[in-house]
Amino acid sequence: MSASEIASEICPENLYGCPIADAGSLSSLPSTFADWVSGGFECVDVTADLEACGGCASLDIKHDCTLISGAESVSCMSGVCLVDSCLPSYKFDSDRSICISK
């Protein structure tokens, strides 16, 4: 079984297994079930979870919507981070995925 198949099978339906680690600190999913268990994992809804939006933040920091620079409020819709509001000295970019300095 591949690492991504384990991630899909290790959790209840509609949830995906993500290794517990700092955002962006891992280069790949654990390769065996034993590695998943020993390293720790959480089951997340990658379509709506703010800290695992579209994938595991431990593999790529872009999946943690809460880390978007200049954002005051964020959401995760269908696995895509959206900025709901920016801090006062920032404004939306054209597709509302980041905040940029005014």
Automatic annotation (TrEMBL):
<protein>
    <recommendedName>
        <fullName>Protein CPL1-like domain-containing protein</fullName>
    </recommendedName>
</protein>
<dbReference type="InterPro" id="IPR048661">
    <property type="entry name" value="CPL1-like"/>
</dbReference>
<dbReference type="InterPro" id="IPR038955">
    <property type="entry name" value="PriA/CPL1_fungi"/>
</dbReference>
<feature type="domain" description="Protein CPL1-like">
    <location>
        <begin position="41"/>
        <end position="100"/>
    </location>
</feature>
<dbReference type="Pfam" id="PF21671">
    <property type="entry name" value="CPL1-like"/>
</dbReference>
